[in-house]
């Protein structure tokens, strides 16, 4: 009987799954799209049943059907998902409200301010190794307790995306160490345990799950989940993790100095480190493998802006695609290629839903500066790519300020389908990027973790020797270094000089 490995990942706008052989050979891939709820400015939510669980169950069944396999042939399953998210559930594990998503949801700004004022930002930082931001789950739990006390009173479980899927599959209540790192100020990353130090006003620590590594099997598929997914009862399931970690694993980002750039709806950075070295403008977390840490960061809206541009500025191209023509994104990229570097004097701040690292400003907003009547849609689309690239440079420069030196850069995610975007990022940062031939994404990393946890994959070395294949390098154009260095300085100035104005505009919009 075949020993197949399955990985499932839940993203912001879509979910994806893969079924593999132990050597990384892909037998089936399935992707389904879903919606994102934005009920108020600064809020972002998912329905955990209709999005998370239904996508997971559907993809499991479809993968087996595509591969002509049975559930009994799946040796192990690992899951990942957007995070950190907050989903309160009752004593029966039933969700009590829609899930509050990761850093793009900025509703807990007042709670962050209160915690900083009450305990001191430096004291909070001394425990978590990172300052409170919209990425942190602790302030969102406090928001829940303050604004929805009846929900908090009924809460017995606190899930993130992957931990909810693990619960639905196995009945086990467990969270991985990386995701737990983002539950600050409730987690001690040095001791790798929940901390009572600042917990009293936020939540009872007894509500929080037990902790494990993504490389650990934490339970097996129970009968009800087997009936819904097509998997066999008793199939091992790992602890799961955040999608960015699984994506980094999928392309071999496991050694100190390896840096992943994940081009998705948001852009996420993970730099693998041997020790926990805090950086006040980035996130410091446990990583996927025991004994490793990560210096991480995230931009709130990158691919989301290209989607916004497609849906609002290029409806003609989208209609043409729906009628069987060229993909709208490809057509937009072609238009952007006709615009010269510098986008004819346009400069974009990509803060359409606030920003996470390194400015940590939930009230930031997008700015497009330099518009004239001569500018075209292609110029605007190029400015979007260049603006997100300046954001990448800002994060990398911030990492370097505390001595962290990115070595090998690996690009992953849906955005790698755009050769222009990859080239612009390398040109702006001055850094080469490795792009593996096979970039299925987080679900591929999940499948590897499932194999590693069960011994079907013999060791971590199998990742680079078998699973990661056909790497190409996107090299920066040195002739553009001066132009983009000037643009980067203007990018930094534009934020500083427009910050107060956009904050005021955000209050008007709210």
UniProtKB/TrEMBL annotation:
Keyword Oxidoreductase: no
Record keywords, A-Z: Kinase, Transferase
The Carbohydrate kinase FGGY C-terminal domain, residue ranges: 260-453
A GO molecular-function descriptor: phosphotransferase activity, alcohol group as acceptor
Name of the featured protein: Carbohydrate kinase FGGY
BP-aspect Gene Ontology terms: carbohydrate metabolic process
Keyword Transferase: yes
Organism listed in the record: Thermobaculum terrenum (strain ATCC BAA-798 / CCMEE 7001 / YNP1)
Family statement drawn from the similarity comment of this UniProt entry: Belongs to the FGGY kinase family.
Domain Carbohydrate kinase FGGY N-terminal: 5-248
InterPro entries referenced in this protein's UniProt entry, alphabetically: ATPase_NBD (IPR043129), Carb_kinase_FGGY (IPR000577), Carb_kinase_FGGY_CS (IPR018483), FGGY_C (IPR018485), FGGY_Carb_Kinase (IPR050406), FGGY_N (IPR018484)
